[in-house]
UniProtKB/TrEMBL annotation:
It holds the Pfam family Acyl_transf_3. One of its GO terms (cellular component) is membrane. Keywords: Acyltransferase, Membrane, Transferase, Transmembrane, Transmembrane helix. The keyword Transmembrane applies. This is Acyltransferase. Residues 8-324 form the Acyltransferase domain. It comes from Acetobacter aceti.
């Protein structure tokens, strides 16, 4: 399997996860609470962020792992960071400013200069302060992991049998500390307190799982590529989201499910690769960053005579804004910032020897 080829099913599942988060926060914005299994599923919307973290570990390994498999140069490190800045920063800054302005005019809330500076540099959730755009806390912790990705890629893949246990231990530790400190929100893993190290630990543990997903997906293992096994894993994963207190189980099921989605021939892969769902994935970063601003417009959507119509209209507008943001902010600025990559690629830097021979099939 070509690791550099886009796997549309992974893009599509990202779009579904983004919409799940929007539905979760829209539901929380109102007074009405859906009961039963549907309510439990909606309440687990925060787990979509965990899915994002695992998916990031997988996709980052697919996209940049080849740079750090053998002897790599400092220029490779700079290239990685420039590309991540190009991907994250332009739309992040726009939504940050817009959300900050809306927060001031609608809620009358202001933020200290140090918080603004931390948010502009995407380091606010490193124990510094709150995210002005509430959704951006996850971008901040992922940004931290990108700095260490080149250094952990080889060890994680080399110790692939141990890593899942390390991730499990970290997640259990997060839940226990969260329970004792009172910073859990709607569920065991719903922890994003900016003054705690737990959000960083949450991202790190799940990013590692994503790297193991990469190792399994592009190895000789045939177990996860069986259509029957794929259906079973995907069904159990979905079912776990209707049961309370299953966060860690769901996280590991997410990992298994993503491995099955790297096989584009199974049924769910074909569904989430469908063009409308695929484009939700293409716009997912914009959907995720913009939805906090749109929540200001939703208000108590569950009261009055427009409990369904109003959020639907706003969601359609959100999709339009996200689409325009992708084509007129994300893409143009990515190209401009990536030009800096040429500067570093033309310079000579001392190499950093990680391994003489490493490849997925050699592990």
């Amino acid at each position: 399997m070509d690791t550099k080829k886009e796997i549309k099913s992974l893009t599509g599942i990202r779009g579904i996860a983004a919409c799940w988060i929007v539905a979760y926060h829209t539901w929380l914005a109102g007074n009405h609470r859906v009961s039963g299994y549907i309510g439990t599923f909606l309440l687990h919307g925060y787990l979509a962020v965990d899915l994002f973290f695992i998916l990031s570990g997988l996709v980052m390994s697919m996209s940049y792992g080849h740079l750090f498999e053998k002897r790599w140069e400092v220029s490779d490190y700079f290239s990685l960071m420039i590309r991540r800045i190009a991907r994250l920063w332009p739309l992040y800054i726009v939504t940050l400013i817009v959300t900050g302005i809306l927060t001031y005019f609608i809620e009358g809330k202001t933020f200290p200069v140090v918080v603004w500076l931390a948010n502009f540099t995407m380091i606010q959730t490193w124990g510094i302060g709150e995210s002005i755009n509430g959704a951006s806390w996850s971008v901040s912790v992922e940004w931290a992991i990108y700095f260490i990705f080149p250094f952990i890629f080889f060890p994680a893949l080399k110790m692939h049998r141990i890593v899942p246990f390390v991730s499990f231990f970290i997640l259990v530790l997060i839940i226990k500390i969260g329970e004792n400190s009172g910073i859990q929100r709607k569920g065991p893993l719903d922890i994003f307190d900016p003054h705690s190290a737990l959000p960083l630990m949450r991202c790190f543990a799940e990013f590692l799982l994503g790297m193991i997903c990469y190792r399994i997906s592009f190895s000789e293992y045939g177990f996860f590529h069986s259509k029957l096994i794929s259906v079973i894993i995907q069904t159990v994963t979905f079912a776990s989201l209707f049961v309370s207190g299953m966060d860690i189980v769901s996280v590991f099921l997410f990992s298994s499910c993503l491995v099955t989605l790297t096989n584009e021939r199974n049924y769910l892969s074909r569904i989430v690769s469908w063009t409308p769902i695929y484009y939700l994935g293409v716009w997912s970063y914009a959907i995720y960053l913009w939805h906090r601003s749109f929540l200001f417009m939703i208000g108590d959507v569950w009261n009055g005579h427009h409990t369904v119509l109003r959020p639907m209209i706003i969601f359609v507008i959100l999709l339009i804004v996200s689409c325009l943001s992708y084509y007129f902010i994300e893409q143009p600025w990515q190209k401009k910032i990536r030009r800096l990559d040429r500067i570093f690629s033309q310079k000579s830097y001392p190499g950093i020897k990680i391994s003489d021979n490493i490849g997925v099939n050699n592990l």
